[in-house]
Design brief:
This protein is an alpha/beta fold. It is built from twelve helices and 16 strands. Helix 1 packs parallel to helix 2 and helix 2 packs parallel to helix 5. The two termini are 14 Å apart. The structure holds ligand FO1.
């Protein structure tokens, strides 16, 4: 069964890893948020792409979820001694990735070409695609002015109060090669437990943001040339990144609250909306802790699965992904 996963950040990467443990590599395509990408120390940094790739390669730092395992920090230490910017921590091993990516991009390669090359080198089986080859930086509007995502997330530790977001130039940016093809072939689309506001919405902004996702024949490349995934019986299933009113990690719950929405699994289901209405979802997966919200999710016209959604171990990633696939199988027309 061909599956497309939309992902960004550590939680998303964990479910992607679980899916990869349940599916043959040729059946899984991951479309990754690149709104967090930025230039730092003259290098092109793509945190979510790297988090997904390192996780699939089994080389992610287990303590942080981002960066590489068995990392050393000598370059950062030298930088600190010289008074350079060390608020964004690049490890020595990770630095090699950014150096080579930057070199290849300066040589004229696209981000998707570079990502394919790195995946081959790291032995990553599933196709990992940036949402777009064009930069679409996420701006976070806050009570302290507008900040690039990494300025908000890392430098300011998510402290400023959020008032909105902008995905810069998303209307002009085309999906990366392979994105529409994968969506066209998909029998299931999984929205991973990533931050809806800043990990998934940037991807949806690229795809046109009106439950479009499947290109009309012949394959459309222009905005507005999509038909809803559900029109060809392709369920879209999301897994909640919010458990018990709190984000498993990151600022998703804080963002909901600051934007005037009570943070909850139900709020996430409402965020994406029902495929039967003008939204996306046929199915939604929420944690046991939130089981009392399942009927409210169903009343939105979205099927609900209640299970353990915490992924502390590889076994829990595999188990959650298996349950998502079984649940989605029942939603297939
Ligand atoms: N997150 C932090 O909280 N602090 C860091 O210093 C940091 C460095 C970093 C370096 C490379 C990389 O790929 C990711 C890194 N991240 C860091 C994580 C990153 O900011 C976030 O995980 C994502 O952008 C959110 O999805």
């Amino acid at each position: 069964m061909k599956v497309v996963a939309l992902a960004g950040g550590v939680g998303g990467a964990k479910l992607v890893d679980g899916l990869a443990r349940n599916l043959p590599p040729e059946d899984l395509t991951v479309i990754v948020n690149t709104g967090d990408d930025f230039e730092h120390l003259g290098l092109k940094i793509c945190p979510d792409l790297d988090t997904v790739c390192y996780t699939l390669a089994g080389s992610a730092n287990p303590a942080t979820g981002w960066g590489r395992a068995n990392e050393t920090w000598n370059a950062l230490q030298s930088l600190a001694e010289l008074g350079g910017p060390v608020w964004f921590r690049l490890g020595d091993r990770d630095l090699g990735t950014h150096l080579e990516r930057t070199r290849l991009i300066h040589e004229g390669n696209t981000l998707s070409q570079v990502t394919r090359r790195f995946c081959e080198a790291w032995g990553v089986g599933p196709a990992v695609l940036p949402m777009s080859d064009a930069p679409v930086p996420t701006l976070v509007y806050t009570d302290e002015g507008e900040l690039h995502f990494q300025e908000y997330f890392v430098r300011r530790q998510c402290r400023p109060r959020v008032t909105g977001f902008e995905f810069q130039r998303a209307e002009q940016a085309l999906p990366a090669p392979g994105v529409l093809e994968a969506l066209n072939e998909a029998r299931l689309i999984v929205i991973c437990p990533s931050n809806p506001w800043v990990s998934i919405d940037p991807i949806l902004a690229i795809l046109g943001n009106q439950s479009r996702w499947v290109a009309k024949e012949p394959l459309g490349r222009e905005p507005g040339t999509f038909v809803p995934a559900t029109a060809k019986g392709c369920p879209v299933v999301a897994v909640s990144p919010i458990i018990g009113g709190e984000a498993v990690r990151g600022p998703a719950a804080k963002m909901y609250a600051e934007l005037g929405v009570q943070p909850s699994a139900l709020a996430v289901a409402g965020h994406y909306g029902s495929a039967g209405e003008t939204g996306l979802l046929s199915g939604f997966v929420l944690d046991h802790v939130d089981k009392t919200q399942a009927d409210e999710v169903r009343s939105l016209g979205i099927e609900a699965l209640v299970t353990n959604t915490l992924m502390h171990t590889p076994a829990e990633r595999t188990q959650l992904a298996k349950e998502v696939l079984l649940f989605a199988g029942k939603l297939l027309n």
